[in-house]
Design brief:
Blueprint: H1 2-23, H2 30-48, E1 54-57, E2 72-75, H3 79-96, H4 106-122, E3 126-127
Antiparallel strand pairs: 1-2, 2-3
Helix pairs in contact: 1-2, 1-4, 2-3, 2-4, 3-4
Length: 128
């Protein structure tokens, strides 16, 4: 479940950035939304370490005669450093984004956050 929480934090903050961009073109607090989502995702990955190892099982697929075993995502001591490096790099990108005014665009941030969420999701080994 913690894998989902970390990924959803990144996806939801990206969606919030897109909504802010559509509704308020020059919102000054878009960076705070991006930085907050990345920071909360980093904190949630640090919380993983208290419960390692853990599995996330997806529901069974149909027909069950073809797919006998459910797909399991496993977070363990091997995949945790990769996960923390992904979210720490994303947080660093958001933190240093204001120093680069040419690239400081909320759509760039909204694009980087879901990629980090997808990388975080896929960094966990799949057990069949």
């Amino acid at each position: 479940m913690l894998i989902l929480i970390s990924c959803l934090l990144l996806f939801i903050s990206s969606l919030a950035l897109i909504v802010l961009r559509v509704t308020q073109q020059n919102a000054r607090y878009a960076w705070w939304v991006a930085m907050g989502g990345a920071t909360l995702a980093t904190i949630s990955v640090f919380i993983w370490q208290m419960q390692l190892p853990f599995n996330l099982a997806l529901p069974s697929w149909q027909p069950e005669t073809l797919f006998v075993n459910p797909i399991l995502f496993r977070a363990d001591g091997i995949s945790w450093p990769l996960a923390i490096s992904i979210v720490a790099l994303t947080t660093t990108i958001m933190l240093t984004a204001l120093a680069r005014p040419v690239v400081a665009n909320s759509l760039n941030w909204a694009g980087a956050l879901p990629w980090a969420g997808l990388e975080l999701w896929l960094s966990q080994p799949i057990i069949r």
